[in-house]
């Protein structure tokens, strides 16, 4: 019977192409995932409901039950409440009554979640989006009611399903003290949606105080953009036109007025607006009356009462000048329902924040696509990643002594080719968002650099000045969940670097990029293996000098990488060697008297002898022993033990010593504090300095194995990992019939090579 065959992908000739399959390894994928939490699927909901109907019982959520922990630690003590199902509160409960409306949901008295209520009201204005979050087929009708309901929220790039029971917290006399429908009290989707959202956050109390943009992102999967209206220097000159264009592109808008910092209480102002409150923006209009153009916004108060009392309020005399035709064209109306119109200039003066949430239609299917039909739309590219201590958590580059680690952060290439059709200066509108997980939030940022040479290769401290310059450096001063910035850029190639404030801070991130024109983006990575230095220079791999040709041959190599959305193929100019490496150069021999002290009668040495010899050589050359372990000596010996005999000659031991001296020199240069250790974040830089690149996956494997919890690698482990890396790479190359074919090896060959690293 034929032996089992194992095929390996050949190494790419491009020094910046990701090693094929490196992102598919389970270990790599596990490290890159955000923190997880318990959710259900549609199948779980259906099976749970079917079981309840079959058994004739009502569902009771084991993870979010009728108990104090569901409410939270504070309100259980200070506010009376009881748990009741809608059928215990009214005789004819309904999930939805004549569809959803922005007037269906009102804020309760027990919790300050106006940001959630305002966002839910906005969601209700877009039926296709609403039905994705609130499946409409749910009911209280006999025969199909089991006390179980489900909702969907967008969480860190994925849609998750939350299943709840319908036991709701109510006050004395069965009053709804949380979100409810004030106009149609027997409609319960608002209360149940709030409960599901509270479960997503851990408890009801977690909804006390929040941001409209965060809830809108959770409801839509959109990208939020935030404007601080009290910083006019950061507001674009054409701001109203920007807001109107955004609204016309089916983006969702919300606004907030901050509370008095001394009281932090919701407070009604004489003009009818509330401090410490969030509002929905439900329309944007521009209308001309008596030759004067009016820029207007329509807002809704989640309290479903109290409205703006200034110009364009319900009682404003200006309504007398609005024709019935204009009212119909612009959907202008006057009703006392907590919704009102106000001039844009008054809005800019009275409000503190404006949040825009932009939607990418490609993430929607079926009827959801109709929302964007015939409209100018956004196109999104997204990449999930993770800052990993000792691997790619390089920090912001501004804090000493970690400035040099900045370029170890993940780097993404963005190719902008076509300018926006609506831009008068032929530039590209780009919105870049960086989002982090819900727990252990960091101060995060994102930087954008123009690649002057247009080549999507990793930037570092040595090549940055020659290859790139900074376009935008944007970071938060707080641990915000999402940070975004809007840029107008010339067509070109850009490098986007997401980063945390401090080096070695771990956490997941989601990078998202919105443009009007479709673009290509990908993670910039390197293949594990030799890289091409300047023509005519010497590439040192171990103790072997490989002279590269003076006149390299250009080639075009496609770069293929997989993102969280699609597979992107980017073709970039590369240079590959045209001749095979030259033979090894001369190596200085170890002193024969020294060698004989450790060699056997056969004039050969094994791993134990090699360990003692290297320690003695280090003592003689550097004044202290190298501290080599037996395991390190074994791996060093294996590099030059061609026949797997477990011994090497004087000539081969001399190559080992040359290898150790070569890498000790590099180790010492990066050991700036003379601690006889280096930060594992430096590994890729050290290898690159020697003419050998490590992919992100390879770097992570080495850092985890040798850096440990502290991410610190001592000299002995450093030499060991370099030796194993070289031996592993050389073994792969030995199984390639030629550089253009995959490496094929049978199981026994693979086992022998792997066990003798």
UniProtKB/TrEMBL annotation:
<keyword id="KW-0788">Thiol protease</keyword>
<feature type="active site">
    <location>
        <position position="277"/>
    </location>
</feature>
<dbReference type="InterPro" id="IPR011992">
    <property type="entry name" value="EF-hand-dom_pair"/>
</dbReference>
<dbReference type="GO" id="GO:0006508">
    <property type="term" value="P:proteolysis"/>
</dbReference>
<dbReference type="InterPro" id="IPR022683">
    <property type="entry name" value="Calpain_III"/>
</dbReference>
<dbReference type="InterPro" id="IPR022684">
    <property type="entry name" value="Calpain_cysteine_protease"/>
</dbReference>
<dbReference type="InterPro" id="IPR001300">
    <property type="entry name" value="Peptidase_C2_calpain_cat"/>
</dbReference>
<dbReference type="Pfam" id="PF01067">
    <property type="entry name" value="Calpain_III"/>
</dbReference>
<dbReference type="GO" id="GO:0004198">
    <property type="term" value="F:calcium-dependent cysteine-type endopeptidase activity"/>
</dbReference>
<dbReference type="GO" id="GO:0005737">
    <property type="term" value="C:cytoplasm"/>
</dbReference>
<dbReference type="InterPro" id="IPR002048">
    <property type="entry name" value="EF_hand_dom"/>
</dbReference>
<feature type="active site">
    <location>
        <position position="301"/>
    </location>
</feature>
<keyword id="KW-0378">Hydrolase</keyword>
<comment type="similarity">
    <text>Belongs to the peptidase C2 family.</text>
</comment>
<feature type="compositionally biased region" description="Low complexity">
    <location>
        <begin position="553"/>
        <end position="578"/>
    </location>
</feature>
<dbReference type="InterPro" id="IPR022682">
    <property type="entry name" value="Calpain_domain_III"/>
</dbReference>
<feature type="active site">
    <location>
        <position position="114"/>
    </location>
</feature>
<feature type="compositionally biased region" description="Low complexity">
    <location>
        <begin position="1"/>
        <end position="14"/>
    </location>
</feature>
<dbReference type="InterPro" id="IPR038765">
    <property type="entry name" value="Papain-like_cys_pep_sf"/>
</dbReference>
<dbReference type="InterPro" id="IPR036213">
    <property type="entry name" value="Calpain_III_sf"/>
</dbReference>
<feature type="domain" description="EF-hand">
    <location>
        <begin position="658"/>
        <end position="693"/>
    </location>
</feature>
<keyword id="KW-0106">Calcium</keyword>
<feature type="region of interest" description="Disordered">
    <location>
        <begin position="550"/>
        <end position="587"/>
    </location>
</feature>
<dbReference type="GO" id="GO:0005509">
    <property type="term" value="F:calcium ion binding"/>
</dbReference>
<feature type="domain" description="Calpain catalytic">
    <location>
        <begin position="58"/>
        <end position="360"/>
    </location>
</feature>
<dbReference type="Pfam" id="PF00648">
    <property type="entry name" value="Peptidase_C2"/>
</dbReference>
<feature type="region of interest" description="Disordered">
    <location>
        <begin position="1"/>
        <end position="43"/>
    </location>
</feature>
<protein>
    <submittedName>
        <fullName>Calpain-A</fullName>
    </submittedName>
</protein>
<keyword id="KW-0645">Protease</keyword>
<dbReference type="InterPro" id="IPR018247">
    <property type="entry name" value="EF_Hand_1_Ca_BS"/>
</dbReference>
């Amino acid at each position: 019977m034929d032996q089992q065959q194992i095929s390996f992908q050949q190494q790419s000739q491009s020094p910046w192409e990701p090693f094929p399959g490196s992102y598919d390894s389970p270990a790599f994928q596990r490290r890159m995932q955000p923190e997880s939490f318990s959710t259900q699927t549609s199948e779980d909901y259906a099976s749970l409901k079917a079981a309840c109907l079959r058994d004739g019982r009502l569902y009771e959520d084991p993870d979010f039950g009728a108990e104090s922990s569901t409410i939270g630690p504070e309100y259980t003590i200070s506010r009376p409440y009881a748990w009741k199902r809608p059928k215990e509160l009214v005789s004819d409960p309904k999930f939805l009554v004549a569809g959803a409306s922005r007037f269906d949901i009102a804020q309760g008295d027990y919790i300050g979640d106006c940001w959630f209520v305002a966002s839910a009201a906005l969601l209700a204005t877009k039926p296709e989006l609403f039905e994705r979050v609130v499946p409409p087929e749910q009911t209280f009708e006999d025969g199909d009611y089991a006390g179980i309901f489900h909702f969907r929220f967008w969480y860190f790039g994925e849609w998750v399903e939350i299943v709840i029971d319908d036991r709701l917290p109510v006050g004395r006399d069965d009053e709804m003290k949380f979100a409810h429908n004030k106009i149609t009290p027997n409609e319960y989707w608002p209360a149940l949606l709030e409960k599901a959202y509270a479960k997503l956050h851990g408890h009801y109390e977690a909804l006390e105080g929040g941001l409209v943009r965060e809830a809108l992102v959770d409801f839509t999967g959109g990208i939020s953009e935030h404007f601080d209206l009290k910083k006019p220097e950061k507001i674009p000159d054409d701001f109203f036109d920007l807001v109107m264009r955004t609204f016309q592109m089916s983006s969702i808008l919300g606004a907030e007025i901050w509370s008095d910092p001394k009281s932090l209480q919701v407070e009604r102002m004489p003009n009818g607006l509330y401090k410490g409150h969030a509002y929905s923006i439900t329309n944007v209009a521009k209308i001309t009356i008596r030759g004067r153009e009016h820029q207007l916004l329509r807002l809704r108060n989640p309290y479903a009462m109290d409205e703006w009392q200034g110009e364009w309020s319900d009682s404003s005399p200006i309504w007398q000048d609005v024709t019935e035709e204009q009212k119909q064209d612009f959907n202008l109306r006057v009703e006392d329902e907590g919704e009102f119109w106000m001039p844009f200039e008054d809005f800019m003066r009275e409000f503190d924040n404006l949040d825009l949430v932009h939607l990418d239609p490609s993430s929607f299917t079926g009827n959801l696509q109709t929302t964007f039909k015939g409209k100018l739309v956004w196109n999104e590219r997204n990449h999930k990643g993770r800052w990993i201590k000792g691997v790619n958590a390089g920090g912001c580059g501004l804090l000493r002594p970690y400035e040099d680690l900045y370029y170890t952060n993940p780097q993404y290439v963005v190719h902008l080719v076509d300018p926006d059709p609506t831009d008068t200066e032929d530039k590209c509108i780009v919105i870049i968002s960086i989002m982090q997980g819900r727990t252990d939030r960091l101060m995060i940022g994102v930087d954008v650099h123009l690649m002057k040479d247009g080549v999507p290769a990793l930037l570092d401290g040595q090549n940055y000045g020659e290859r790139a310059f900074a376009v935008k450096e944007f970071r938060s001063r707080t641990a915000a969940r999402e940070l975004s910035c809007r840029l107008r850029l010339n067509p070109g190639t850009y490098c986007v670097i997401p980063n945390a404030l401090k080096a070695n801070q771990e956490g997941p991130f989601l990078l998202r990029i919105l443009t009007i024109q479709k673009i290509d983006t990908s993670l910039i990575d390197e293949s594990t293996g030799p890289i091409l230095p300047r023509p005519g220079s010497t590439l040192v791999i171990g103790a072997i000098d490989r002279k590269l040709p003076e006149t390299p041959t250009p080639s075009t190599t496609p770069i293929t990488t997989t993102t969280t959305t699609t597979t992107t193929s980017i073709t970039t100019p590369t240079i590959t060697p045209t001749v095979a490496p030259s033979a090894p150069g001369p190596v200085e021999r170890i002193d024969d008297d020294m060698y004989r002290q450790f060699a056997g009668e056969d004039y050969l040495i094994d791993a134990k002898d090699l360990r003692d010899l290297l320690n003695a050589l280090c003592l003689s050359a550097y004044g202290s022993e190298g501290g080599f372990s037996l395991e390190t000596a074994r791996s060093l010996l294996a590099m030059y033990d061609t026949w797997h005999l477990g011994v090497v000659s004087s000539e081969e031991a001399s190559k080992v010593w040359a290898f150790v001296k070569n890498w000790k020199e590099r180790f010492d240069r990066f050991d700036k504090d003379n601690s006889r250790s280096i930060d594992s974040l430096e590994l890729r830089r050290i290898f690159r300095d020697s003419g050998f690149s490590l992919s992100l996956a390879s770097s992570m494997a080495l850092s985890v194995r040798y850096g440990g919890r502290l991410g610190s690698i001592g000299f002995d482990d450093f030499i060991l990992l370099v030796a194993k890396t070289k031996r592993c790479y050389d073994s792969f190359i030995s199984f390639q019939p030629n550089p253009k074919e995959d490496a094929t090896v049978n199981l026994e060959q693979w086992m022998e090579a792997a066990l003798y690293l």
